[in-house]
Each structure stands twice: as structure tokens, then as C-alpha cells.
Amino acid sequence: MHLALFQPDIPQNAGSIMRLGACLGVPVDLIEPAGFIIDDKRMRRAGMDYIDRLTLIRHASWERFQADRAPGRLVLLTTKGATPYPDFAFRPDDILILGRESSGVPEEVHEAADARLVIPLLPDLRSINVAQAAAMVLGEALRQTGGFPAATAPANWAPANRAGG
Q: Whole-angstrom Cα distance, residue 16 to residue 134?
């Protein structure tokens, strides 16, 4: 499983998605050009020190991404999708691609996608934040494919006292 960011233009969202990838062990492909300097302090603030644990693969262009990307289906998250993401059968080698916050992806990316998924929303609303969309869909994809990291509780963790506490 990979996350791919197509020419992101908001560094805080990119940083949040990179943090998500780092925490869940999912590589992130960054398809440039981005609308900000990649080491932008706002992106680092959102990603915190987790970004240092991320497998980040930078691609100078869409064409380079297509030539160099890992094998697997391109699964585009888009408001123009026809398949609700909970109804989709994910595979462990899928690449979940997210578009620019300001304009999505161009037609050539839509055409290259093996699947176009939508997040079901109330009829009068357009979209949610790209980092939230990434978390929702990646969570479902990892659930379906058994791809979550093994969960371990901290040494001092204990379940809450539900009886009276």
C-alpha cells in the first residue's frame, strides 16, 4: 500500500499525510511540483518528528511517477468518483492517490486511474479535507488487507475502570 500526493499545495495537509504514512508504515509518493518548499516549516510542524520515520519517494513529475512507481493499481480518491470507498475491494499493493486541494487532478490522472473512489457525503456538501480523506480511505484499505501494524499497548497502559470510575 502507498499513498501518493499529486502536486499538493497546502504544506500542513502534506505534513499530516506524511505523519499518517509514517505512523502506519505506509510509504508516501510525492508527485511534484508542490505548491510549497518541501522542507517548509509548516509541513514539518504538521508531520512533527514522525516525518523522519517516513519512506518518502519524490517524483519530479507525473511522468516520472508513472515510470518509476511501485507496481499496483492506481486508486484515485475524487469527488468525481462513482464507487463509494467502503464498497471497494482493496489490495495490499494499491496506490491511493490524492489530488491538489485547490484543483484535484488533471484528466490524464483520471484516465490513468484503475479505480475512482468517492467518500459519501451529504448531498449539499462538496468535499472534506484531503488529509482526513487519506486517513479514512487508508484506514479502510488497511483493515480490508490486514495491513495495520501490530498493535502494542504502552507498558503503563491499563483499561479504564468502567464500573464506577
A: 10
74-90 mean pLDDT = 96
Domain that holds residue 121: 2-145
107-114 contacts: CB < 8 A, separation 24 or more? 108/62, 109/6, 109/62, 109/76, 110/76, 110/78, 110/80, 112/66, 112/74, 113/74, 113/75, 113/76, 114/73, 114/74, 114/75
CATH of the domain at 109: 3.40.1280.10
Rounded CA gap, 156 and 165, in Å?
18
Is position 157 within any domain? no
Interval 96-105: pLDDT, tens: 999 999 899 9
In a domain, 73, yes or no: yes
Domain assignment present for 100: yes
Question: pTM (2 decimals)?
Answer: 0.87
Q: Give the chain's domain count.
A: 1
